[in-house]
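Renewal narrative, Specific Aim 1. Our central claim is that a sequence can be written position by position from structural information alone. The example that follows is taken directly from our test logs and has not been curated for this report. It begins with the structure tokens describing the chain, in the order in which they were read.
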């Protein structure tokens, strides 16, 4: 039987993935790239950002597996880095926008978490408290997971922006294999490291 509390993660999960992707596109738009805007991706409507596997199938599998954590991703917002006014520098800003947004959302959910205790109706307060706590945790997971310095993750793009041109070119050549590297790291427990070293300590501070 599926733990009913898992459904309290759905809204925070959608908020985390949608705002993460929209922030990439919005910052790119402000820095000269209209690709996401023309693709209709500068919207908070979750339907525009659904990735069949990352937004639907994987979370459903986690539900069925009684996972205590909701995880997945949205369809990446298209960005043409060559349209940016300063492609090398601005690509770092575009990449950093996602994790920074998740960190801000974690703080917002933490504030709502503490406010929720003031609601006198327990039937409303209790699920809201739990949902906000999940919101803190999910956004911290998204922020720090995406900061792993491997392409195509945001951390890899930030690192590439600071490397000398020749090194950045060599580094960019691993991008087609990056997802397999990430899967390998997950297999060897990188998720547990992120959760233990970053998510739990920061969540404890916020909550």
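The sequence written for that structure reads:
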């Amino acid at each position: 039987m599926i733990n009913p509390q898992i459904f309290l993660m759905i809204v925070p999960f959608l908020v985390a993935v949608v705002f993460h992707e929209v922030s990439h596109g919005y910052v790119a738009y402000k820095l000269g790239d209209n690709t996401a805007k023309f693709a209709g991706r500068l919207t908070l409507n979750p339907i525009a950002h659904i990735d069949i596997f990352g937004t639907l199938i994987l979370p459903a599998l986690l539900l069925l597996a009684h996972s205590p954590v909701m995880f997945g991703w949205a369809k990446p917002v298209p960005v043409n880095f060559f349209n940016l006014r300063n492609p090398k520098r601005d690509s770092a800003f575009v990449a950093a926008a996602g994790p920074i947004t998740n960190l801000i959302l974690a703080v917002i959910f933490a504030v709502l978490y503490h406010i929720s205790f003031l609601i006198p109706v327990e039937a409303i307060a209790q699920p809201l408290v739990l949902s906000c706590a999940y919101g803190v945790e999910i956004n911290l997971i998204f922020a720090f997971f995406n900061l792993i310095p491997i392409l195509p993750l945001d951390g890899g793009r930030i690192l590439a922006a600071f490397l000398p041109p020749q090194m950045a070119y060599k580094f960019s050549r691993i991008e087609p294999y990056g997802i397999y590297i990430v899967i390998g790291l997950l297999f060897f427990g990188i998720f547990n490291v992120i959760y233990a070293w970053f998510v739990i300590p920061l969540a404890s501070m916020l909550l």
